[in-house]
Specification:
It is a single chain. By secondary structure, this protein is mostly helical. The chain is built from 14 helices and two strands; from the N terminus they run αααααααααααααββα. Helix content is 71%, strand content 3%. A two-stranded antiparallel sheet has the order 1-2. A hairpin with a 2-residue loop joins strand 1 (245-248) and strand 2. Helix 3 (28-35) runs parallel beside helix 13. Bound molecules: protoporphyrin IX containing FE. Protoporphyrin IX containing FE binds at residues 24, 31, 34-35, 40, 43-44, 140-141, 144-145, 148-149, 153, 212, 215.
């Protein structure tokens, strides 16, 4: 036990000045808040639904597309090069596979992207252009999260959704990483090798808190979108006819009020015409 502890300390050799330690410290509270979002609680309770997971995949697709494009474009930047591990970490292709599994070949036309996801992606593109040294904060938040709690969530998701194989769950699999723990150690040491001025370091730390905040907002937005759909379906079944909802990227349209307005106009016009005729 004692030897194990020593080996671990020697392998990591972390100090209070290390970016990996500072980033973990400043995002500790945000991590707790992220874990306690309704979506993450559904995962942890083994109650994640197919609807939740499908919607999450759509957002993850947009997020990783932005993140990985910006990492690729800045791969030679001194703040990015040490933590650039596309072969081990890139998620975009696995998410595409999962989307195709759940939505079919024309998944690109079907995906739904809530506003919070668009805001997150906008920020990723902005820092990719203006402050590439901040990308480490986002890469850390997503990839180390996927290699930590994400590994447990993948197994839970499979059971919750009753999936027989790993199909539809490629997102959680990292075939290029044989030991997530060892890889995380390597990643942390690479983070710590990035040379940053005091101002840049503070910027990265602030950006990491922001990255968690973006994720929390994405989860909350997804949940809201789902509860609107569920409420509409529920209310619809309580009345005579179910309410049809159209889902278009970033928003939802409820067709029944529109239909009611057109019908109302039609009735009003008919009444007026009948009045004129009678007169
Ligand atoms: C159900 C939700 C979650 C659970 C159960 C969970 C659990 C965990 C666990 C057990 C660790 C390992 C802690 C350690 O090694 O000291 C971890 C680390 C981490 N998690 Fe989560 N997590 C969840 C959600 C999230 C989310 C939503 C994010 C970000 C979007 C995230 C980002 C991270 C990061 C960046 C780390 C690495 C911390 C470090 O070693 O510096 N986690 N998580």
């Amino acid at each position: 036990m004692e030897t194990e502890k020593k080996t671990q300390t020697a392998a990591e050799q972390l100090t209070d000045r290390d970016l990996s330690e500072q980033i973990k410290k400043v995002t500790k509270d945000s991590h707790v808040r992220a874990e306690n979002t309704e979506l993450m609680l559904s995962f942890q309770r083994g109650q994640v639904t197919l609807a939740q997971y499908k919607l999450l995949l759509c957002s993850l697709y947009e997020i990783y597309q932005a993140l990985e494009e910006e990492l690729d474009r800045n791969s030679n930047h001194p703040g990015v090069a040490p933590i650039y591990f596309p072969a081990e970490l890139a998620r975009l292709e696995s998410i595409e596979k999962d989307l195709e599994y759940f939505y079919g070949q024309d998944w690109r036309e079907k995906i739904v992207v809530p506003t919070a996801t668009k805001r997150y992606c906008h920020r990723l593109r902005q820092i990719g252009k203006e402050n590439p040294e901040f990308l480490v904060a986002h890469a850390y938040t997503r990839y180390l999260g996927d290699l930590s709690g994400g590994q447990i969530l993948g197994r839970i998701a499979q059971k919750s959704m009753g999936l027989k194989s790993n199909e539809g769950l490629s997102f959680f699999a990292f075939p290029g990483v044989s030991s997530p723990n060892l890889f995380k150690q390597l990643y942390r040491s690479r983070m710590n090798s990035v040379e940053l001025t005091e101002e840049e370091r503070n910027g990265v730390l602030e950006e990491a808190v922001r990255a968690f905040e973006f994720n929390i907002q994405v989860f909350d937005d997804l949940q809201k979108l789902l509860s609107v759909t569920e409420n509409q379906l529920h209310n619809g079944s309580a009345h005579s006819k179910p309410v049809t909802t159209l889902q278009i990227p970033g928003t939802m349209i409820n067709t029944s009020p529109l239909l009611r307005m057109v019908l109302g106009l039609f009735v009003a016009l008919a009444t007026v015409s009948m009045g004129i005729y009678a007169f």
